[in-house]
Amino acid sequence: KMNCCGLLTAQKEPVPLKSVEVELEVRDHVATVVSTLNYENKEDKPLEAVFVFPLPGDAAVCHFSATIGQTQIVAEVKEKQEAREEYDDALSSGQQAFLLEESEQSPDIFSLSVGSLPPGESASIRLEYVTELAVQADDGLRFCLPAVLNPRYQPQGASVQVTSVPASLVPYSLSFSARVSSPRPVSKVESNCSLDPLQYLNPEQTQATVKLAAGHKFDRDVELLIYYKDAHQPTAVVEAGQASAKPGTLMGDPVVMMSLYPEFPQAVMSSVASCGEFVFLLDRSGSMGQENRIGSARNTLLLLLKSLPMGCYFNIYSFGSSYQHIFPKSVEYSQKTMEEALKTVEEMGADLGGTEILNPLEHIYSQPCIPNQPRQLFVFTDGEVGNTKEVISLVKKNSGSHRCFSFGIGEGASSALINGLAKEGGGHAQFITGTDRMQPKVMQSLRFALQPAVVDISVTWDLPKGVSVTVLSPPITALFQGQRSLIYAQLTGEVGAAPSLSEIPLWSDFFNIQLTVHRLAARTLICSLEMEEKERRGEQDEGVKKKVVEVSVQSGVSSVFTAFIAVNKGDGEAVQGPLVRRNEVWATILALIWLHGFKVDAQDEWQLLAMKAVSWLRAQNATCVTECVEAGNALLGCNVQKDVLGL
Questions:
Q1: Residues 112-126: pLDDT tens digits?
Q2: Which SUPFAM superfamilies does the protein's record reference (predicted)?
Q3: 3-class DSSP string for 316-369
Q4: Is 109:53 a contact under the CB 8 Å cutoff?
Q5: SS3 449
Q6: Which helix (H) or strand (E) holds 644?
Q7: Given pLDDT bands bounded at 50, 70 and 90, which one contains residue 483?
Q8: How many angstroms separate the CA atoms of 636 and 287, rounded?
């Protein structure tokens, strides 16, 4: 599990970071983030390093490039196996190579091998991604800068938690600026960090810029909240296709993004249901002990418990490596059962070990539903799980019988997990950091759970003759008051002047520079296809996978089956000096040679361990084994053959 991020060596030591520059381009409800990270190898030998980047869950990486010295390398998206082979070939011939791939378990961690960085050399990494911005309880749109782009700084040897670090001590600098544009005026932009005043770029106030004030302290996430006038008006934005792409393809055709954020009539809203089966699932893994996350989750849960309507049913599960429940099955909510639950919750600590969320979820879904009491699941977690995709698939499979509301607790909760649970479970996601805005967020989710939802939603497209539409988003199953849905669609044919979409005027002002909408549409389509491929796995049907690879390569948006590959062909000069392979394969082989070379007499003590290591190495399918064995023997002055090691 990778909790540290940025540019790391094999020992998970960070390569020194000099500066970070981030430019945020917000268009209505979506954004492109362009970031540049500058690093320096301060060692006296070349090193192979890995760049680890935790992404917001619904984000799509769409550009990656690296500059070393005078050379720039730009990455292309290729089929994963092909990309890996190209990377290995480049490294073994002494060329610089970079590989960026999505982790199989969780879509929000990208790890990137940056090949060899010569001693004393600087590397500059440029990464662009697109993302949808989440709507908050007060109609603000939230953007949060991932920790890699805003690393926490802890002075060396500081054992106490440092609350604030004087900027003069921090060895790297951060510059962050945002440009916001929308069909409607921007009313304000707020942040948990100090900002320079908002600057409007036009009289209508539909375009504005803002930047981080000098002296940022690096002791917190940078969060931006953007507010528009007339927030509940539906908008539709059309983005022209890429001139170089073929018409009829996703990137060659115009793409529309429609945002629906309805305000329900007061009469509907006053009819709040007083029934439901509320199942609360609380994360009590060890990581919840940090920053008093467990305290924050407990307070959230206590507030919810006290606010439930009389006559409903409820139960509380908590989990870590194992799970527990307060009642054998859901009980009716009364003064007595509430007090019993409150007492138990107040004593819950972060003392259950790992984060095994799958088992309690399976147990909850195996319980029969109570007639006329719709099941509502509330999940509280800091999101540190390794099997995000499996968890989300399980929620999706059971989405017909319940709704799932998720709460990401603490700084840096995994947005892939929190947003994924709510999206597939037809509920709503909230992120709770600190205590500042916890109450309104909690009450908003509870209101969603109790209020009527709009179902049977259909969208009609009023298009000119000769234009056809392909909707790329999965159908919307339910909409709640205060919940926003984005619909992406591809327009094929002679689009000509901007058509109108049943009552919603199309805004096609300046939406063509970044291809933000196209890339998010591609990401949406890729996610749907990946889900479909997972459900059909084993049917030997390569069709869906082929389609994912095709959309991914064409749009430059990565997927589970593709990777970014960049090779610096340069002058073909190999980097001088022994290449320090900064990865676990090298370390494992070195250990095996040492054991066989120097500790043969204690073989019965380490034999089982060695067998485990060998089977792990075989599973890695590493192409560098022979090379590592030779280098290891040379380094340790041994002569242990590959077959003796079992390789």
A1: 676 677 888 888 888
A2: vWA-like
A3: EEEECCCEEECCCCCEECCHHHHHHHHHHHHCCCCCCCCCCCHHHHHHHHHCCC
A4: yes
A5: helix
A6: helix 642-645
A7: confident
A8: 39
376 CB neighbour count, 10 Å cutoff: 23
CA 224, 227, 232, 238: dihedral to nearest 10 degrees?
A: -70
Strands 17-27 and 173-181: parallel
Give me the amino acid identity at 238.
V
Q: Hey, how many other C-beta atoms are within 10 angstroms of the C-beta on 86? A: 18
Q: Which two tokens stand for residue 356?
A: 């095994």
Please say whether the beta carbons of 404 and 424 come within 8 A.
yes
CA 26 to CA 140: how far, in whole Å? Answer: 13
- Range list of H helices, 384-469: 388-397, 415-424, 438-450
Q: Which two tokens stand for residue 34?
A: 């362009």
- Does residue 332 carry a pLDDT above 90? yes
Count of residues making up the chain: 647
Does the pLDDT of residue 579 top 50, yes or no?
A: no
Strand-by-strand arrangement of the 71-74 sheet: 71-74, 60-68, 122-132, 30-40, 17-27, 173-181, 207-211, 199-200
> For residue 468, which amino acid is it?
S
Sorting pLDDT into bands at 50, 70 and 90, what band is 303? confident
Contact 332, 276 (CB under 8 A): no
The angle, 0 to 180 degrees and rounded to 10, between the axes of the packed helices 415-424 and 388-397 is 10
